[in-house]
Amino acid sequence: MATTPVSEKVVRVSVNGTTYEYEVPTRRLLVHFLRDDLALTGTHIGCDTGSCGACTVHLNGVPVKSCAVLAVQADGAAVTTVEGLGDEELTPLQQSFSDHHALQCGYCTPGMLMSAAALLDENPSPSEEDVKVALQGNICRCTGYWNIVEAVVAAGKGVA
Ligand code: FES
Ligand code: FES
């Protein structure tokens, strides 16, 4: 039986400050490119349908669900994943998550951190309401959300 040829395209993308050039199937999702081609498995897959936010990364500084973006759409762009948030040390936001017990199983945490980091980039001192709006696309099955909101507000106030 004849198989349909897979169309491929070269993608050149900066991820966490390193430029990569890969030939990828045009249908490959950004989340699979990050996890399977670049081995950046900090970006999680919860639903693969754009619903849970576990796969959130920054695309040119804007938080996006990487299961809803094709790798070819990132051609020429700068992507930041959770691995690119800090260096060896925890960032104040990450420390605040730890201090406020804002994670349990941790599955949603990379996506929460990336959405929260984008908020803090735009609004360094967000209110509770601001945080709730910014995180509305991120689902957590464990925490009840309150500690996450507290952690982001505290990070914004510099009291993490
Ligand atoms: Fe992308 Fe759930 S895995 S939104
Ligand atoms: Fe478990 Fe959020 S900490 S899903």
In short:
31% of the residues lie in helices and 17% in strands.
> What integer value in Å does the Rg equal?
16 Å
Largest sheet data: 5 strands, mixed
- Identify every distinct bound molecule in the structure, by name, code or SMILES: FE2/S2 (inorganic) cluster
Q: What is the succession of H and E elements?
A: EEHEEEHHHH
Considering DSSP H and I runs of 4 or more, what fraction of the residues is helical? 25-40%
Spell out the CATH superfamily of the largest domain: Beta-grasp domain
Taking strands numbered 1, 2, ... along the chain, how are they ordered across the largest sheet? 2-1-5-3-4
| Tally of domains | 2
- How would you describe the shape? elongated
For this structure, the quaternary state is single chain
Alpha plus pi helix count:
5
Residue fraction in strands: 15-25%
CATH top level assignment of the largest domain:
Alpha Beta
Instruction: Report the count of strand segments.
Output: 5
Low-confidence stretches: none
Structural commentary:
This protein is α+β, with helices and mostly antiparallel strands and 160 residues long. It has two domains: 8-84, Ubiquitin-like (UB roll) (Roll); 92-157, [2Fe-2S]-binding domain (DNA polymerase, domain 1, Orthogonal Bundle), CATH 1.10.150. Helix content is 31%, strand content 17%. It has five helices and five strands; from the N terminus they run E-E-H-E-E-E-H-H-H-H. It has helices spanning 30-37, 92-99, 109-122, 128-134, 146-157, and strands at residues 8-15, 18-25, 56-59, 62-65, 78-80. The protein has a five-stranded mixed sheet with strand order 2-1-5-3-4, with helices on one face. The radius of gyration is 16 Å and the shape is elongated. The termini are far apart. The model has no long low-confidence stretch (mean pLDDT 95). Bound molecules: FE2/S2 (inorganic) cluster (2 copies). One FE2/S2 (inorganic) cluster binds next to loops.
